[in-house]
Amino acid sequence: MTDSIQPPAPAAFIGLGVMGAAMAANLAKAGYALAVNNRSRGKAAALEASGARWAATPAEAARGAAFVALCLPDTPDVEAVLFGPDGVARGVAPGTVVVDFSTIAAAAAAGFAARLAAETGAILLDSPVSGGPKGALEGTLTCMVGGDAEAFARAEPCFRAMGRTLTHLGPAGSGQVCKSANQLIVATTMLAVAEALALGAKAGLDGEKMRQALRGGSAASFVMENHATRMLAGQFAPGFRAELMRKDLRLSATAMRDHAVFAPATALTAQMLEALVASGRGGLDSASVGALVAELSGLKPGA
To answer: What domain range is 114 assigned to?
Structure first.
């Protein structure tokens, strides 16, 4: 199969959390005939109302689809959806492009790709994303893709419905390695920004003036632009939960170990994320690391 997967080809989306629901909506808006599946049907209501077809199982969603997308919390969830009793492998056809947008272990992603190909003839790509809920809503995600290059080329129109920056990085698992690097950079930068803001507060500086000064120079970053604002305001309603960032830093630490990389920043940041969740903030946004650093620095909330 070498034809590009263009609308109105049948497509399926499994996993309708904050990210998945928005991505699925953009796939439907692009003109794909969409089937959806989720552990709880209520999250599919808006998509069904706009014309998507509900599928009772992942197998049913995958049956007849040219493109199947997954967006799930962790490695065991992906394995269950792909290979469980009613999993994708029970319904997918040979040559179908299956894309896992979840963030999971790189070794597992490579293993799942080999297993799906052997059992069904379908092609699994790993494509973790960056850009958060805003990027998912606006269809501007960064997609880090591992797996068969020809399959990626065939599915590119589907990717274009959901993402803006698409990079094929190499064989299966490569996308997950890149995502581990991405999360390390984001989380470590958040920790540094949290410490910097705590320093400013203890030295008597105005936090917002300090942020404005820093964002105008070499310290400028997405984290300084967005997460620092949340830290200063103490607004930590979850966009990306701390418990998920902890999971991602565990994956980063595993990737570093697997590739024998000297990684002190990874070790420190991973431990800080463990502390953040242990402090009771696992359900808050990962930017709540700012509140933990402030607390440990002896600052009162709102200081």
So the answer is: 10-171
- For residue 249, being part of any structural domain is answered with yes
Report d(CA 35, CA 47) in Å as an integer. 9
Query: Which residues are tagged catalytic?
Result: 179
Q: Which of 110, 123, 265, 115 is nearest to 172 (CA)?
A: 110
Residues 141 and 235 placed together within one structural domain of the fold? no
pTM for the model stands at: 0.93
Q: How confident is the model at residue 204 (pLDDT cuts 50, 70, 90)?
A: very high
d(CA 95, CA 131): 29
Do 282 and 276 meet the contact criterion of CB atoms below 8 Å apart?
Answer: yes
| Distance in angstroms (rounded) separating the CA atoms of residues 141 and 155 | 16
Distance CA 103, CA 127 (A): 8
How many CB atoms are located within 10 Å of the residue 281 CB? 19
CA distance 14 to 43: 11
| Residues composing the chain | 303
Q: What angle do CA 185, 189, 193 make, to 5 degrees?
A: 175
C-alpha 149/C-alpha 303 separation (Å) is 51
- List, for residues 151-185, the tens digit of each pLDDT value: 999 999 999 999 999 999 999 999 999 999 999 99
**What pLDDT is recorded for position 1?**
55
Q: How far is 127 from 176, CA to CA, in rounded Å? A: 7
- Clarify whether residues 199 and 107 are in a common domain: no
The radius of gyration of the chain from alpha carbons, rounded to an integer in Å, stands at 20
In a domain? residue 222 = yes
